[in-house]
Design brief:
Pfam family, one: DUF2921_N
Strand order of the largest sheet: 2-3-4-5-6-8-9-10
Protein name: DUF2921 domain-containing protein
Distance between the termini: 75 Å
InterPro entries: DUF2921_N (IPR057425)
Radius of gyration: 21 Å
Helix content: 10-25%
Keywords: Signal
Length: 238
Amino acid sequence: MAALARNHDTSACDLCLIALLLSITSVTLSATLLGPYSPYCVSPLPAANQHTDVDNVLVLLRSFHLSVGFFSGEGGNTLFSPHPTNGKGFTRNTNTFSMLPHGISRTTEPNVLHLTATLTLTDLREHIDENECVCGSYRESHSISFFLNGYYSSASAQLCMVDMGRELSRRDTTKHYADVNLHLQIPNPSSLTDPFVTGSLKGADFLAISLVTYVEGSNYKYSESASCSSVPDVAAAT
């Protein structure tokens, strides 16, 4: 049984939080996957953790930090119910997501990393009222956070994670979703021809949600070869 939290005040998490979370990294990664992994993640296969130096952990965590991306799909409509406007007007939606990794370890498989992270979906709505007497707007933001555990393969560039079953509540209101699983394609290294992180979030209680963002980190590689047509000699042409 998966769990999530709804919050009205959301902001991007700074990477400095990673340093604070390093103290609990070993505890987080030593935990057994609470949700079923193999039914939803054919690849990468799980592997045993190995000791990972702190400096290496920081570098690896930064490479999986996604500060802002966008989501779409019918699943988003299920998670975030529509709010009709009163009178004349319209609502403008901005659907974003972020992923904050808080535990990572190398494994006995050289190309496989064990990762824990929090994926947060945020629905920002700006309501524009255009009544005869009043013209104004107001915003409201709702977020849902999933606590995920899984594996990344640098050979296939695939990340697959399942919900750990942790639960947060707000104002004594708790919502549960079963069988939540995340699939992301994260190019390593990224390039001009392959700069995007793409994938989907699925659950037993909501349809697939499509995710897309740019690769972040310091390992972005520009192509060394470029095919550009030669600039014509203006002087010779005249």
